[in-house]
Write a sequence for this structure.
């Protein structure tokens, strides 16, 4: 199989680099300065064993590849806010022997949140969810890092909306030869919703900085409790913290890496890079959406969604709001909430 990594940033670059390092055929898809650096100097992957350079085919879109191959596996690793454009670009590309990518090829959504699989399923027949437990960083154009050891990450795989198949097992086997653990599960969404609850911290970290003080952690507990209440009201199952810990154990322990400054998660990285967009609409915004659908107020997640989007749009510095200010605004938002939402039946 040939892996086409659509969005070779922090997550996609690490997955592509690790697959290439274990002998698998990989094509990277990138844009802008990152594309130029990958094309000119290769993918530089900083991991606990050192910096690895992979000279791989790099394209900025499907035109450079011509017809796709029947054994191609598409890995969608862009931020969710960029999914629609990527899906619409790749879906109609012809595959050798007849048909299009949307009709014939498997698409694995290696992204935060739960929305991209639904977006993909409107176009692609064979869609797979990936619960991404992969601490990684986009360091600079052409350079990504992953500090996990002894494993680089844990990637639960499954068909969307549910089930497993031979393709999922083949991909999992390739990943497990490439420094990952890749359980194939019939209920991958249950793991993704659990990850979603953890990702509610992304906007909080992006706005106020590292979550180390008791005031930050207390606010995070309130934000997560709001998310759990929404999922419970919606009847959506999610893996418990205990179940996640039992799977992860100490398999992905972060170690210091030379030349990689200590940074934050994906939303913090978006602000630091000044991309102008952030994925809060599909993390905290997912909770807000489910809250409105199920009559549960979500003032804390709505506030974080609004602030993260404002920071991204105005290109404000990551971590520049004092946590005391955010707590004050959070208390005001909760006080202004009217209790359970009234839904007409």
């Amino acid at each position: 199989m040939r892996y086409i990594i659509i969005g070779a940033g922090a997550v996609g670059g690490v997955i592509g680099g690790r697959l290439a390092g274990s002998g698998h055929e990989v094509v990277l898809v990138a844009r802008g300065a990152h594309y130029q650096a990958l094309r000119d100097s290769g993918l530089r992957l900083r991991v606990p064993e050192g910096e690895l350079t992979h000279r791989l085919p790099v394209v900025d879109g499907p035109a450079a590849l011509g017809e796709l191959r029947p054994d191609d596996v598409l890995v969608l690793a862009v931020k969710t806010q960029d999914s629609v454009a990527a899906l619409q670009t790749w879906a109609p590309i012809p595959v050798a022997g007849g048909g299009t990518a949307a009709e014939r090829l498997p698409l694995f959504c290696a992204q935060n949140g739960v929305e991209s699989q639904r977006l993909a399923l409107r176009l692609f027949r064979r869609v797979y969810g990936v619960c991404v437990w992969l601490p990684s960083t986009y360091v600079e154009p052409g350079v990504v890092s992953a500090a996990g050891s002894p494993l680089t990450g844990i990637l639960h795989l499954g068909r969307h909306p549910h089930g497993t198949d031979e393709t999922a097992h083949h991909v999992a086997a390739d990943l497990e030869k490439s420094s990952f653990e890749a359980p194939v599960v019939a209920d991958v969404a249950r793991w993704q919703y659990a990850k979603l609850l953890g990702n509610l911290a992304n906007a909080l970290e992006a706005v106020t900085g590292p979550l180390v003080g008791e005031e930050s952690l207390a606010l995070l507990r309130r934000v997560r409790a709001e998310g759990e209440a929404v999922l419970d009201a919606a009847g959506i199952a999610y893996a418990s913290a205990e179940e996640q810990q039992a799977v992860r154990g100490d398999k992905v322990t972060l170690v210091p890496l030379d030349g990689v400054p200590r940074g934050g998660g994906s939303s913090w990285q978006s602000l630091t890079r000044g991309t102008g967009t952030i994925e809060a609409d599909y993390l905290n915004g997912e909770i807000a959406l489910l809250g409105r659908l199920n009559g549960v107020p979500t003032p804390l997640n709505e506030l974080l969604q609004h602030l993260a989007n404002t920071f991204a749009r105005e290109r404000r510095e990551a971590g520049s709001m004092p946590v005391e200010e955010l707590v004050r605004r959070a208390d005001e938002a909760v006080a202004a909430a009217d209790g359970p939402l009234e839904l007409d039946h």
In short: DSSP finds 14 helices and 14 strands in the chain. The mean pLDDT is 95.
